[in-house]
């Protein structure tokens, strides 16, 4: 499976192309919001979301039948930014299950800023 192309299709909200990456009985879990989706529900949540998206896959780890990605996702108007960590389980070259953890990008909390520890990554 071409994981870069998968993310390109997801970010471009190409429903028909996204569908082809999944087993018919696959599912997607978004743990941070406690949601479990069928493939069709995931496609609706992704493709019906308002606005146009962009992003960059920052890291890919492949181990056995699992692909793990860390991806920055943001609206094209750059009004927000998120990082998603995806654990993608493959079966016969297609996604059988995907567990995702989404986080809003932002500043460190004030209590850590006050401690004057750490520094910006970028």
Structural class: alpha+beta
Specify the helix fraction band: 10-25%
Q: What characterizes the major β-sheet?
A: 6 strands, mixed
Question: What is the CA–CA distance across the termini?
Answer: 30 Å
Query: So what's the oligomer here?
Result: single chain
Number of strands: 6
Main sheet strand line-up = 2-1-6-5-4-3
Query: How would you describe the shape?
Result: globular
| Strand/helix succession | HHEEHEEEEH
Poorly predicted runs are none
Helices, by number, come to: 4
Mean pLDDT: 96
Q: Radius of gyration from the CA trace?
A: 16 Å
**Binned strand content:** over 45%
What does this structure look like?
It is built from 4 helices and 6 strands. It is of the alpha+beta class. The protein has a 6-stranded mixed β-sheet with strand order 2-1-6-5-4-3. Strand 5 and strand 6 (94-104) form a beta hairpin. The longest helix has 9 residues, at 3-11.
At a glance:
With 122 residues, the protein is of the alpha+beta class. Helices cover 24% and strands 45% of the residues.
Helix-strand blueprint:
Blueprint: H1 3-11, H2 15-19, E1 22-30, E2 35-38, H3 39-47, E3 53-63, E4 66-75, E5 82-91, E6 94-104, H4 110-115
